[in-house]
Amino acid sequence: MEHHAAPDLDADAALAALEWLVELGVTEAVGDAPVNSYDLPDTLARMRAAEPAPEPAAQARPAPELAVVRPQREEGPDPVAVARAAAERARSLDDLREAITAYDLCELKKGAKSTVFADGNPKARVMIIGEAPGRDEDVQGKPFVGRAGHLLDKMFAAIGLSRETPDAEGAFYITNVLPWRPPGNRDPEPLEIAQMLPFLRRHVELADPDLIVLMGNAACAAALGQRGILRLRGKWAEAFGRPALPMTHPAYLLRQPHAKREAWADLLALRARLNALAP
Hints:
Layout: H1 11-23, H2 40-50, H3 56-60, H4 79-89, H5 93-102, H6 108-111, E1 118-120, E2 126-130, H7 135-140, H8 147-157, E3 172-176, H9 190-207, E4 211-215, H10 217-224, H11 229-232, E5 237-239, E6 242-247, H12 250-255, H13 260-276
């Protein structure tokens, strides 16, 4: 039997790859035998050769087209307008947390275990906006507590910032665009971002940070109306009336360790901008 060498992975990289698959919603391996992805074309050819030929009638029948049907709200309130009104009524972060928890017009809430609001020091000068909760965040009810969250803590500790400290000068505050986990950790959809954007805008107003960090594409889409984090990262912009720095998500850095060098440059730029602003 021919054996194929596995790609070189150290323990941390292998664990990161496995956790990434779990984060995507993979729960089991499917197949009677392992498939070597490097030999995939030959494997597929052998599998297809072993399949019985389709019957003539089946060959003549055209493949059905799948229609993508999105739920339509023919009656009832506009979910964005309801979110906007609820957000505007919030006079404190506690009010905003209650308003988000009570908001029932986003379908994501039905499948989530927790409403993930925020973590860290709300008086911090730096506010980090991520994308959406993952599995660990959904279970614990806090943003960025999984493997990506641990990396994020190490990254910001390297420039003297922590979510644990009571000192506003050395703290950061963190939230997400969406407070509920999308199924299978898929990317947030435009409608979901639009629904929760009034809450996010009010969140920034109430926390009143000096600087914002936009972690990943969904955060940039919500705050800047743009996507393409690899193009946007490291370039200062303005979001919600404040200086904002797009950065690659820690989950991306776990998959692409070579990008940590650019992330370190972004962290240094953040530290320099923070030092230049009077507290």
